[in-house]
């Protein structure tokens, strides 16, 4: 025999008191009921786990065309900001929205981006006029820094830092 002491006898009237022997048939019924009643919770828990996994999944990679559209929008906003600074009444300036696509972006020259559009703004007499503008931006290799090298507003060239060909 072992030297372990026996557990104390159950207290009469407590739920742990064995008033009658355990019937195997009753145990099987209770286990079956618990299994049947817990099935919906297990299924819902599994669905929740699958749904929560799909929500936290990484988004698909951004297509190249979206990145190009983002660059076009950024160049347009940069160029229009520079034009706005040169207006007689910058507060009255109204540029086309980025989504309207009433602007053109040309990056066929390496290292440069040409942006053109129009602006509605008041002149020095207070009359609102529409003027066409063109801005040429020089950018670095990573497209993070731009410098204006040419700005034309209406018929006036306000900035021209383009390199001149030697004659």
How would you describe this structure to a colleague?
This protein is of the alpha+beta class and about 170 residues long. The protein has two domains: about 20-55; about 65-160. It is built from two helices and five strands. It has helices at about 25-55, 65-85; strands at about 105, 110-120, 130-140, 145-155, 155-160. A five-stranded antiparallel beta sheet has the order 1-2-3-4-5, covered by helices on one side. The longest helix has about 30 residues, at about 25-55. It is rod-shaped, with a radius of gyration of 38 Å. It starts with about 25 loop residues before the first helix and ends in a 7-residue tail after the last strand.
Key attributes of the depicted protein:
5-stranded antiparallel beta sheet; rod-shaped; alpha+beta; 167 residues; 32% helix
Q: C-alpha Rg, in Å? A: 38 Å
Order of helices and strands: HHEEEEE
By DSSP, the count of extended strands is 5
Globular, elongated, flat, extended or rod-shaped: what is the shape?
Answer: rod-shaped
Mean pLDDT: 79
Helical proportion?
25-40%
Q: Ranges with pLDDT <50 over ≥5 residues?
A: none
Give the count of structural domains. 2
Q: Strand-residue fraction?
A: 15-25%
Individual helix count: 2
Oligomer: single chain
Structure classification = alpha+beta
The largest β sheet comes out as: 5 strands, antiparallel
Task: Please list the strands of the largest sheet in the order they lie side by side.
Answer: 1-2-3-4-5
First-residue to last-residue Cα separation? 115 Å
């Amino acid at each position: 025999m072992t030297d372990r002491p026996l557990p104390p006898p159950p207290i009469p009237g407590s739920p742990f008191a064995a008033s009658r022997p355990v019937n195997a048939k009753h145990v099987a019924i209770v286990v079956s009921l618990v299994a049947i009643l817990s099935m919906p919770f297990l299924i819902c828990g599994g669905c929740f786990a699958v749904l929560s996994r799909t929500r936290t999944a990484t988004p698909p990679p951004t297509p190249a065309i979206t990145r190009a559209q983002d660059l076009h929008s950024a160049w347009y906003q940069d160029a229009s900001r520079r034009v706005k600074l040169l207006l007689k009444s910058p507060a009255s300036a109204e540029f086309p929205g980025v989504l309207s696509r009433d602007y053109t972006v040309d990056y066929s020259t390496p290292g440069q981006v040409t942006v053109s559009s129009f602006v509605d703004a008041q002149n020095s007499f207070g009359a609102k006029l529409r003027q066409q503008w063109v801005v040429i931006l020089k950018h670095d290799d990573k497209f993070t820094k731009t410098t204006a090298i040419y700005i034309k507003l209406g018929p006036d060239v306000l900035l021209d830092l383009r390199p001149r060909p030697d004659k």
